[in-house]
Amino acid sequence: MFLLEHILPENATGAIKDIYSGFPPEIGPPLPLKLMTASPEFLLSQFETIKYFASHPKLSFLLLAAIRYMAAHTIDYDYCITFNRNVLMATGASEKEITAIIDDPEGAPLEDNEKAMLIFVAKAIRTPEDVQIDDVKTLRSLGWEDSEIFDAVAHGAFMRGHANLMKAFIQK
């Protein structure tokens, strides 16, 4: 599976077992988390980040899944494209709505202010040098705080690091 030694769910103990047990048995922990067990302390820090976003007071579960799906498409990260497509489908999003996340974010299954955030995150990830103060002002006018804007972009940007780790260490 991976080029590095890692801990499978059936062999996990302690904190890693606790992390793994947080995922429904029919789904199991995502592959990137399994890879991260090669460095248990790194895994623990990443899981804290996952918990932070899972309980984010303003960035909805659906918006975060849409951000991950869009970011995975941007960097050609097949595993997370599939994983987040399944997450979106499980929320009730239609095929047309999921396709819109990439092709026409205005048709994404999100509130209007969330669509604006998704469009901004896509811009920040694809062409960060093009982000302007007016982009930020627009999001602020829609009720977004600067910390939420930062969190949304960070959530999408982190996808590149995870993708690089997976691509480097997946058994070919």
Description:
This protein is an all-alpha fold and 172 residues long. The chain folds into two domains: 9-54; 61-169, AhpD-like. It is 66% helix and 0% strand. The chain has nine helices and no strands. It has helices spanning 14-21, 31-36, 40-54, 61-74, 78-90, 95-103, 112-126, 133-141, 146-169. α4 crosses α9 (146-169) and α7 packs across α9 (146-169). The protein starts with 13 loop residues before the first helix and ends with a helix.
CATH architecture of the largest domain: Up-down Bundle
Count the beta strands. Answer: 0
Mean pLDDT: 94
The low-pLDDT segments are none
Number of discrete helical segments: 9
Overall 3D form? globular
Describe the secondary-structure layout:
Elements: H1 14-21, H2 31-36, H3 40-54, H4 61-74, H5 78-90, H6 95-103, H7 112-126, H8 133-141, H9 146-169
Helix pairs in contact: 4-5, 4-7, 4-9, 7-8, 7-9
